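Same chain as my last thread, 284 residues:
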Amino acid sequence: MASLRNFYDQFSNSTTLDGSRLERLLRDIVSRFNALQPKDITKRYVETRYLLGYRPSYPALTSQDRLPWMGVANWNNAVELTGAAPEDGFQNPWRHKGTNLPLIVPDEAATDDNQYSWTTALYFSQPVVLNNIYLGLTQSAGFSGTLVYGAAPPPGYATGDSLNDMFLLVHVDDPFVRENRDLNQVAVYKGKFKLTGWSARNVTTDQPTVDMTPALGLFAPATTPLGGAYVELRNLNVPIPESSRVRFSVVIPRYPVAYDTGWFQNPWARSIFSGAIDVLESVA
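reply #2:
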């Protein structure tokens, strides 16, 4: 049976069939297909890839500038101020949702424990589909982080256990109050997952030649080659509305000095961070 949305005349065993009705149906068919609407055509999509990356400028130096990594806390006691604080306080005391970790009090004034986030914002004027997210942590000579807890792990973990304290977040800003973090919509969330499950090149051979300084090769311990972790979130199929500002964030921890973790005391300098975001844009 034809859809009433397209044709008024419906034919079945219990209805009459005559020339006038057939002529009217054929006329409706011609009119309908001479004025196709966007919903009548299968949408075609083209993939667009956005690349991002961060390479520390001075590996293994605790005192280096950590920007663009920002503390996740944003209140009076957690930021460095020049002059007085705003009368109404800070608008967004937290930059993200769902990044709580035991043992860490996110406070910029603290000397040894905090959480830091690196955020990349994208604006889409037309609806898109968020398809894939990739994040790589490359570790090599000069960027000697590890993927496991060390000899003095935090409570609840043992030496050699996988790090599971990093977060990957995608937030979509509220369309009316974009700067209010409380109104963000969490579109993608991946947190507290085992990084060793995403380890890359877990072998003991080095690269065949050294052609750059510092060399991307073996570091302490000497049997550890160029490696790291490579996280893939594929086929997400997350619709993003038109006129949306999307924030992709990576959140990493810095534990108190009493604990030995693969992040050490300068987690932003222990890996080369790189990533990609794939979105599908309609061309129909």
